[in-house]
Amino acid sequence: MKGWFVTGTDTEIGKTCVSAGMVHLLGQQGWRVAAVKPLAAGQAQDVEGRWFNEDVRLLHAAQSAGLSEAEVGPLQFRAACAPHIAARIEDRPIEREWLVSQVRATAARADLSVVEGVGGFRVPLCEGWDTADLAHDLGLPVVLVVGLRLGCINHAALTAEAVRARGLTLAGWVANTLEAPLPHLGDNLSALQTVLGAPCWGHVPRLHPPTAAAVAAHLNPDAVPVRL
């Protein structure tokens, strides 16, 4: 596989928006990009009564490889909770080999893949397997989305440490602005650069709405290397 695994310092810190922005940016550069969210928990019904996951739909809209929503999100649960809990509630076990094979099959249809994890880097999926193992199974370099809030330096440093402990490369990181502005922003960004020891791929401000194109405009195309 060629591409990146996108993880975050926590849940709800903008992984999907950044992933969609990466897909859009790479598409502008002429690459056919597959966007994949292997697991998604939390579905709603649209006006036609169809169940959908908002993150999967956003990634599907950004991709350029002609994928279906089912290929972008091969395993979707209705309950908005940790995936291993949703799997138990719905009696749909998360199967490691099946899920990895689905991601690889989808990735094979494109030049590059942006695979978004769920929650943070070490979310349990089934017994003896978590999202860090998923990233390792796929063998992709990791991009870390840092939600800019108090405590983010510690969360980012711990996540980077965990990524490298799995033998994976931290390819880069993206700073994402959350609801409340982070005081001493410049000092915090400087500290993040020091502790992460990887290139910053961009700083995304608060966007209304946070479309893939809007996010892509705040990613540095020269910092997102495509060396295949």
Automatic annotation (TrEMBL):
The keyword ATP-binding appears for this protein: yes
Compartments reported by the entry: Cytoplasm
EC code: 6.3.3.3
Record keywords, A-Z: ATP-binding, Biotin biosynthesis, Cytoplasm, Ligase, Magnesium, Metal-binding, Nucleotide-binding
Cofactor: Mg(2+)
Catalytic activity from the UniProt record: (7R,8S)-7,8-diammoniononanoate + CO2 + ATP = (4R,5S)-dethiobiotin + ADP + phosphate + 3 H(+)
GO MF annotations in UniProt: dethiobiotin synthase activity
Residues reported in the UniProt entry to bind ATP: 55, 116-119, 176-177, 205-207
Amino-acid positions noted as binding Mg(2+) in the UniProt annotation, renumbered to this chain: 16, 55, 116
Enzyme class, spelled out: ligase
InterPro entries xrefs: DTB_synth_BioD (IPR004472), P-loop_NTPase (IPR027417)
Annotated active site: 37
Known pathway: Cofactor biosynthesis; biotin biosynthesis; biotin from 7,8-diaminononanoate: step 1/2
SUPFAM superfamilies reported in the protein's UniProt record: P-loop containing nucleoside triphosphate hydrolases
Superkingdom, taxonomy of origin: Bacteria
Role description: Catalyzes a mechanistically unusual reaction, the ATP-dependent insertion of CO2 between the N7 and N8 nitrogen atoms of 7,8-diaminopelargonic acid (DAPA, also called 7,8-diammoniononanoate) to form a ureido ring.
Quaternary data: Homodimer.
Family stated for the protein in its record: Belongs to the dethiobiotin synthetase family.
Protein name: ATP-dependent dethiobiotin synthetase BioD
